[in-house]
User: Fold MarR family transcriptional regulator from Novosphingobium piscinae.
Amino acid sequence: MRLADNHPASPAERGEETTAGLADDPMSGTLHYELRRAAGALSALMTRLFGEFGLKPSEATMLMTIGRNPGCTQSEIARTHRSQQANLVPLIARLEREGLIARTPGKGRIMGLATTARGDALLGAVEDRFVRIDHCLAGHLNEPARTALVQALQEICRNACHFERQPNPVASGRASDGTPA
Assistant:
């Protein structure tokens, strides 16, 4: 089965006017493409909004995580965010250099992380931005629809993380719901 056989009608096929570009985008309407487009738009928005605080989106996320979980460790954060611990090192180092977080005594030799007074002062504004972004993205959805969307996105994330372990429905001749492909 070709990708184009399973995608919705293009704007041109629906009789809609299109802006400059191709009349038929075979990727339009596919989950992976629309998720990438949405992620790109969200990344640009978050970069602009958190940039006003001198933070990258990943740093704002890290500040929120540490602020909500005082004493947490890098390992715990990595597991929670499905990240490599090594990728957190520069984020944590920058937040520490900026005086937003500090290392605290943890269990044994393991050091915990906590926000400083300066980090706490910024945390409220960062949290407000996250709430504002969330409302912008899903403001028109009622709570059950929003919950369903979040659950669907979490499922997509799990499926993407385990892509190589999943059977190929095209190769097996079956769709993911068990019907013939």
Summary: The beta strands are 101-105, 111-115. The CA atoms of residues 69 and 114 lie 8 Å apart.
